Amino acid sequence: MEYIIGIILLLTFFGLAWYCISGNNLMIGFLIISIIWAVLSFAGTLGSSPAFLEENKILQFAGMKGVMDALNTIFQKAPEDWGSTLVNVCWGAWFGRVLMETGIASTLIRKTVELGGDKPMITIALLNIVTAIIFTAMMGAGPVIAIGVIVLPILMSLGIPKAIAMFSFMGSVCAGIYINPVIFAQCRAFFIEKDAVPEFNLGWYASKWGFVAMIILLITTTVLSGVYLTKSKTSHAWAATVRKSAQTKDAPFYTLILPIVPVALKIALNFSVIAGFVIAGFLALFLCGKMKGNFKENCQLVNKLFYDGVVDTAPLVGFLLTLPMFNKVAAYAAPYFKVLLGGIFPKNELVLCVVFTVLLFMGLFRGPLTLFGCGAATLGVVMRIGDFSLPFLYALFAIPTITVNIGSCITQSWVAWGLAYTKVESKDFLKLSIPNAYIAGILQYVAAFILLGSLGGNWLMSAILK
Amino acid sequence: MEEQFANLKPIFYGIFGKQKNIVYEKPKFAERKIADMLKELSKISLLDWERYAFSRDPLVGRISPYKRKEYMQKSWECGMEWADRLKSEYGNLSAEDLAKKLGMETEYPILPENTDRVLFAEFREPNNIKIYMDAVNKAKKYLFDGDIKGIFCDANIVDILLLHELFHSIEEKYKKEIYTRVEKIELWSIGFFHYKSNIIALSEIAAMGFAYKYSKITFSPYILDVLLVYGYSQNEASGLYEEIMELVDDNERKHDER
């Protein structure tokens, strides 16, 4: 019976992959699959062999109460626990809006361009670094678009072909996201509960692998932009660009440090991310003269920025609220997968890195390797079949999620916007971004294997999920 | 209220709909008639477009208002000089014949644009020019309006675009001597090392001057920015017009203060 359930579960997994790749709603998809997997896993215990049930304590429900407790854990406790991550997401989105409103982000970009001048390669390199730094703190489609409408016309005015400009910008945004505390908190929640393994925090992760991953992507994006640029012909375009933002006044010089304050405090002192956002956000508003109105007006401004920020992140929130249900139910489905795949699943970090490297393209189009798509289901299986360390597994999935999906795929909201804005054909963008995803991905997997591949003991998922 | 509903849309899609992407909310401007806008824009003297011309330059923050004026004048003159030079060299050729004479390969693709950035024409080194006809075709219908006819007379938009791009090809050919490429600004220095850069706006201004002189039009080619965007979005064109007028007014105010 457990084999039959395993096969049905596997078929539903492929069904979910097809559903996600077709661009359907992720929230509903994950809600349905959570229900199906719960029904299959629970019903499967009725006909499974005693040896199978004996081996898997998680499937021993001890009557109706046990089933109810399990259901409550899946459908109530799991999404509730994710609430704390959602709060970080909202504050991060607010901070992104503050950096836009105060003109700090745009000033940083303009000042950077003024250092590079008309030399496209120097300007690209400098802009990539600054963009990556900015997006260690900002996130969401709104901020990417707000910075994109400044950066992309500048790059194109330097004669850089639009596809390369777009590729370079999106790659550098993605590089910054590797150590973005909000994205880290979101992705971490895929693996473990908030309070579990406190040692696995942003500071530890960034110093062990996050910075390396970021630098690798930054370098490959910049170097490849240069390579593409030498192969392409410079263009001069007559185009009218409607200015989107009235914000052209430079923010004070000393405020340009503020975007990195929350991340720096978190990494250096393990200081609260939200407090970092609040301190840096209000400092930005005061120092840039945005709080000169009366108390009521200032409150309205803060409120409006919070509202806009939350809307920026809204499309993914529904998905991320059903995802914890799925993560939890995957624990009940895992024994069936283990019966089916346990014998053939790689047990070795190196083999897993090689397999994931080859299959990196499956991070595209919300496929089975990206956590912001069907990869969440893959993780549910991988996490419980093999016994790998938490940081290694995190890196294993972060690469297809961030480098491939967020940085290189046209299903990413801001990439889709960029294509429309620059009028670059999807295939032209993918021709540039996929080689980068593979080159950066290979190097990042090498780094993950060297830096995180041999962690054992308490870092192993078997110890954490006990 | 309507705005709040629009803002709630992504949440709705996130929960119930397809996984729709968030889109940029375009600012709303008071919409104006194209004839009224062009009439006002045509009153701006050729060199008073300077603030608008520099507003899209990445180095605008490094150029003083005084220097900007000087650059505007010299670049415009440079473009006109080259128009005269080519006319004396090749005779009074049409824009298309001139392009052929200069070895250019000219294409006229019909590429629909979105309104964030409307691309009119493009010169790709070494000898390819593309004139994007969708924008031109959309604008043509407005040229029958009596007031607009009075401004444009017999001007051919395609020729103006082509001539503008031809100037960039000339720049490439004569980059060691042409003003727009020889003039540089120092961005920073370390000891004896001085990092200098060209100013992109100079090329664009000179290309406008070249198109103006060669095609013998009586208005600044910068007007086309508003006309050609109008075909796609009256709102965006109105926004562009507002921005231009603000920049020009500000300039005039500074003139008066001095």
UniProtKB/TrEMBL annotation, chain A:
Domain of life: Bacteria
Keywords attached to this entry: Membrane, Transmembrane, Transmembrane helix
Transmembrane segments: 27-47, 167-191, 211-230, 274-293, 305-327, 339-362, 392-417, 438-461
Presence of keyword S-adenosyl-L-methionine: no
Full protein name: Citrate transporter
